[in-house]
Amino acid sequence: MAMPMRDASEDQQKHGQQEHIETLPLFSTTDTDGRMTVLRPGRRVGRAAPLLPWLLAAAALWALTGSVPFGALLGLAPTPAISMLLGHPVTVGVAVVLLFVAIGATVGVYSRAVEQFGQTRVAGLFATLAIAGGLAADAGVLLLWTLTSDPSRPFDLEAIATSPTIPPEFGAVVGAGFALWAAIALLRLLGSIAHARRRQADIERLRVKGSSFTGTLTAVSFANRWIFDLPMFTVEVGYIVDGVPRVVSAHMRTSADRVPIVGSRMC
């Protein structure tokens, strides 16, 4: 279970009329790395539907960006004229601009997914699906257009090794690789969303019905594991229940400037 925890000395700090909640450090007794989930009080369980327009927009941008390398470099252009157009410096310049826009849109998808599900694993899979899905769709459209423009030309994968130029078959194989990547990301995403929903429901239930104890950090172990710029630790927290000392092991994700030391009080 992942829960944000605060130093006991910060418990009484207020922001306006509401208690200030620090989401880092984040502790979990069940999950590690990107599967650690945090849901702020009052937030609804995440849904994928609000993300779909952003996901489709990002995928479309990646498809437009990918048309230049697929068409001009990987042989997926229906005619030589279109291949030359896609390789024109102006077209390449537009594709570079679209690339930055696509990256920005994908970052937006990632950020919104984190807000919806509170889990970086789900957010990363949404971003992966946008990139791989867009490039796979682009390759599929260009391949279909190429084959229908010249129905007499056979589709032979051996041309990859025998053709003196880059054949459409090579672009098709690259596109199929992106399609496989997108399919794997989609399957993993479905399972990760279900996991995040279970975790968020459990966290909400514990916040309503669970008991809170003040504990002390008794051990901190760092194995040089990171999520982006956030270090991951294995910790032990000691606390007392009905006069009996207990110790619970947990995983901790925090920022480099908020690493609790042994002896820190937690609640």
Can you put this structure into words, describing what you see?
The protein has helices spanning 52-73, 80-86, 89-117, 120-149, 159-162, 168-209, and strands at 2-4, 14-15, 18-19, 26-28, 215-227, 230-241, 244-253, 265-266. The chain folds into two domains: 2-30 and 211-266, no CATH class; 49-205, no CATH class. A six-stranded antiparallel sheet has the order 1-4-7-6-5-8, with no helix packed on it. A two-stranded antiparallel sheet has the order 2-3. The protein is 50% helix and 18% strand. With 267 residues, the protein is α+β, with helices and mostly antiparallel strands. It is elongated and about 85 Å long. α1 packs antiparallel against α3 (89-117). Residues 3-22 have low confidence and may be disordered. The protein contains six helices and eight strands; from the N terminus they run ββββααααααββββ.
Query: How would you classify the helix and strand content by structural class?
Result: alpha+beta
Please tell me how large the radius of gyration is. 25 Å
Roughly what percent helix?
Answer: 40-55%
User: Taking strands numbered 1, 2, ... along the chain, how are they ordered across the largest sheet?
Assistant: 1-4-7-6-5-8
Largest sheet: 6 strands, antiparallel
Report mean pLDDT, rounded to a whole number. Answer: 83
Determine the N-to-C terminus distance.
15 Å
- The count of helical stretches stands at 6
What is the count of distinct domains? 2
What's the shape?
Answer: elongated
What is the element string, with H for helices and E for strands? EEEEHHHHHHEEEE
**SS elements, strand count:** 8
Strand content: 15-25%
Assembly annotation: single chain
Uncertain regions: pLDDT < 50 for 5+ in a row? 3-22
